[in-house]
Amino acid sequence: MSEADIRILVIDDNRIRASVIEEGLREAGYSRVSIIADSRPSVRAIVEADPDVVFIDLENPNRDVLEHMFQVSRAISRPIAMFVDRSDRAMIEAAVDAGVSAYIVDGLKKERLKPILDTAISRFNAFSRMREELDRTKRALEERKVIDRAKGILMRLRGIGEEDAHALLRRTAMNENRRIADVAQSVLTAADLLSGGKP
Amino acid sequence: MTATSPTVTIRAGFIPLLDAAILIIARIKGFAEEEGIDLTLVQEFSWANIRDRVALGHFDVAHMLAPMPIAASLGLTPFGGAVITPMCLGLGGNAVTVSNAVWYGMSVAGADNGGDPKAMGDALRAVVAERKAKGLPKLTFAVVHPFSSHNYYLRYWLAACGIDPRTDVGLTVVPPPYMADALAGGHIDGYCVGEPWNSASVVAGVGHIVTTTSAIWKSSPEKVLGARADWAERNPEALAALLRAMHRASLWCDAPRNAPELVELLSSSRYLDVAPSTMMAGLTGRITLGAGQPQPVQDFRYFAKRAATFPWVSHGLWFFSQMVRWGQAELTPATLETVRQSLRPDLYRRALGPLGVALPNASAKIEGTLTMETPVATANGRLFLGPDGFFDGKVFDPDLIGDYVNSFDIRGPGPLDD
After folding, report:
1. How far B307 CA lies from chain A's nearest CA (Å)?
2. How many of the other CB atoms lie within 10 Å of CB of B337?
3. Per-residue model confidence as pLDDT tens digits over B156-192
4. Alpha helix (H) ranges present in A73-109?
5. CA of A122 vs chain B CAs: smallest distance (Å)
6. Cα A131 to the chain's mean position, in Å?
7. Contact by Cβ (8 Å): B178, A61
8. What's residue A199's pLDDT?
9. Which chain A residues are within 8 Å of B58, Cβ to Cβ?
10. What is B1-302's CATH number, 3.40.50.170, 3.40.50.300, 3.40.190.10, 3.30.230.10?
């Protein structure tokens, strides 16, 4: 069995992440990768994939469903949780940290699992970083909007220009040892309260 | 102990369910902090995660299905490692729900809104028999995990009503939050789960609650606090402090006046992420079974009353008897000893005795003999237990597990699914 023959099943209801993992595995030479992105994995879908390795993200409640199917179904060759051999502790820790769990079908040797798992873990991590990056960008955009609105209020109420309004926010933030976005938020809250608007 | 800055960190995993309340409240109402514990709660999404992260040492303790520490200690789960039960998280709180179609068939067969397990089981047996006669596919029932109280309570009820859970119906596993959807989509025909996931189907108009597990086995145990045995061994003081905090939390949770605040706190996305109104039924035991008015269900749930948190050895042994009954475990002197060792009323006593909590003198009881609330012998204070009867009148003597298992006509492992 060469790399290209190992069948890998990824169960993840986050389709984008599943694709990111699939792509990584293909790049590493594993061509037989299938994905189940359904919120309700069926025995038939698993039988069709006939996997040597199954990956499932740790936030997926279907882990319990999957383990039950492995136990009671005659049709599925019985994969077992990766957490069997305590000598794999470092590998297990890395997997859990990345948020992925692996099941291997008896017969697939540990040495062969290692590179597959490494690829999956690095892809899971890469996806998490991507998501964090996206969250950060979103947050920055949000904060930018808050600061702009706060500047507008200061300009109107104090009759100052935009640069002065910005300087005022920045100075206040420095004096109070707070983030400028937080000071801006306080301005918005205060303005809402004073104008009888939404709390 | 006065409120000081926390000194010990205890990491605990939980699944978003109403019966994790004691653990969650111990943290958010400050009971843990008062005991010098920084209780870190981590929301998990599968029992498999809970099991693995306890075994790996990520969690010291966790909200667990009562049979899980037993299964882990017996080596029936992948990663092994002994897990102990030093405290129970309550009694009751589960129900059995069926689809509207099954309920219609049951009502034709005479089912009413009484919730009586025998009458409901008879009606369901009629539906099962009719489907068989017509050559229709078997009904499928879901539970939350193979090693769950729900699995054993559902099987017990079905079998006692003459429905063989191995052959007359299909059994599958569905995560609690997906139950209502699976029922609505026709993927399953019924299920047994804790609240609020029965009421969720009723609220959505997709199912009908037929009976409660508190009617199948009165005062039956529900989730437990599972602790990794080696952690508990090394940290006796921290564990005792946690049990004290959780005891106080259980009293707080059991007080009816706290119900509105409790559902409000639990509804946060960090904990259950369920609307407070949906949780109220399971909390108060005023349950809407189907279309109609809520009705009080006797003794539906206790967080503290009736020694609800006491880890009875006989409760653990009953779960073990069902594992043996259904072919999941073998009854030998060694396995029996392992199960006994995994239940730790001694640790519970040591932690709560000094607080003057009324503790039963016995650690095991014959289950199913109390027909009504009965005062029992304690070292201090007054304690009432029961009723604790099984709906079919059987009695479980924890000293006679083999005879008990053999007394069931329907027993043994099921055939594998195709």
Report:
1. 31
2. 10
3. 999 999 999 999 999 999 999 899 999 999 999 999 9
4. 89-98
5. 20
6. 6
7. yes
8. 46
9. 96
10. 3.40.190.10
